[in-house]
Amino acid sequence: MPLRIVRNDITKMKVDAIVNAANETLLGGGGVDGAIHRAAGPKLLQECRKLGGCETGRAKLTKGYDLPCRYVIHTVGPVWRGGRFGEAKLLASCYRESLLLAAEHRCETVAFPMISTGVYGYPAAQAMRVAVDAVTAFLLDHDMTVYIVVFSRDAFEISGRLFNDVKAYIDDVYVDRHTDMRREQQRSVRVFDAMMAEPATAAAAPASLDDMLSDIEDGFSETLLRMIDEKGFTDAECYKRANMDRRHFNKIKNNPSYKPTKSTALAFAVALRLSIDETKQLLMKAGYALTHSSKQDIVVEYCIKNGIYDIIEIDQVLFKFDLPLLGS
Fold first, then answer.
1. Are 128 and 316 contacting, i.e. CB atoms less than 8 angstroms apart?
2. What phi and psi, each to the nearest 5 degrees, are found at residue 22?
3. Per-residue CA distances from 72 to 36, 45, 88, 95 (Å)
4. Which three-class secondary structure state does DSSP give residue 45?
5. Which residues contact 181 (CB under 8 A, 6 or more apart)?
6. 49 — alpha (psi -120 to 50), left (phi > 0) or beta?
7. Whole-angstrom distance, CA of residue 228 vs CA of residue 250
8. Where does residue 88 rank: exposed (0-12), middle (13-18), buried (19+ CB within 10 A)?
9. 3-state secondary structure 171-235
10. CA 219, 309, 87 angle in degrees (round to 5)?
């Protein structure tokens, strides 16, 4: 799971490094900066005094001290001035420089806050887009798990149009499904009663167990590999588009009996840009169905029907609705 959006307190993240949204002095401040300094203890400030500050868009590294991480990477985000003064470029540099430092120190897990979205005023939805683009570009060439840590879902923003369109779609199909559920259950009872009232007929001879086992179909792993070839993707393209790490993909690839979670199966459907019918086929091989009884399924169905195959964008919508993320 290379890039995950999580709701947590970044000072409690058990990762190799956390990133501090610092000011240019690196001597502590408010918000995330102050919280990290308080949790790390006075030795963090002592080390920061020796660093000589930090320019906007750059990053510097210290030990983690009393934090549950090995390192703190301090980066200085841009102040929002309307977007006309290179803010996006500077913000992307914060993520890129921090990740390069993490890789240099052999970090496998890194947690970021939403840089510049506090008192620096960067619009949250735009800041998230910059963060996602910078991190995913880095992960194309590096094996690392990166977390974007959001303290509160209320402070998390995504594209208003996409969120509202998905919300309306959920309201249409999920509410209708559950409004009709009692009527469907009553109809099922009537059908069952009618079947029981019919005279019994001679049943066909059941197939033997040996016959059934000899006619077994391809499982999820074999179907996935076949679809990767049919769609013209490489294995690496597929698992990176699915927001999976190489080790997880190799477990699936090398085990014909692998049983994925439904979120994992949906992630690969998105990665391969499958149609709704192809998605149902892949899910079936894993023992699942695409159903309107699941809000996660409805969100993914909406995105597929509307040609939205960016898994991080889909995960942002799922996160906002407090639903399981794809691949998790």
1. yes
2. -95, 175
3. 9, 12, 23, 14
4. helix
5. none
6. alpha
7. 14
8. middle
9. HHHHHHHHHCHHHHHHHHHHHHHHHHHCCCCCCCCCCCHHHHHHCCCCCHHHHHHHHHHHHCCCH
10. 140
Active-site residue identified among 33, 245, 297, 315: 33
Q: 304 vs 6, 18, 149, 179, CA distance in Å?
A: 24, 34, 27, 25
3-state secondary structure of 97: helix
User: Max CA-CA distance within the chain?
Assistant: 90
**Tens-level pLDDT at each residue, the chain (328 residues):** 589 988 899 999 999 999 999 999 999 888 999 999 999 999 999 999 999 999 999 999 999 999 999 999 999 999 999 999 999 999 999 999 999 999 999 999 999 999 999 899 999 889 989 999 999 999 988 989 999 998 766 556 665 677 788 888 888 887 655 555 555 555 555 545 555 565 555 555 565 655 544 555 789 999 999 999 999 999 999 999 999 988 999 999 999 999 999 999 999 999 999 999 999 999 999 999 999 999 999 999 999 999 999 999 999 899 888 899 998 6
Q: Count Cβ atoms below 10 Å from residue 300 Cβ, excluding itself.
A: 27
**Burial (CB count within 10 angstroms: exposed 0-12, middle 13-18, buried 19+), residue 163:** middle
Among this protein's residues, is 33 annotated catalytic?
A: yes
Structural tokens at position 67: 């934090």
Give me 155's structure tokens. 């402070």
Of 324, 307, 306, the C-alpha closest to 315 is 324
Burial string for 97-135 (b: 16+ CB within 10 Å, else e) reads: bbbebbbeeebebbbbbbbbbbebebebbbbbbbbbebb
Separation between Cα atoms, residue 224 and residue 73, nearest integer Å: 39
pTM score, whole prediction: 0.79
Count CB neighbours of 55 within 10 A.
Answer: 13
The single residue listed with the structure tokens 């683009």 is 133
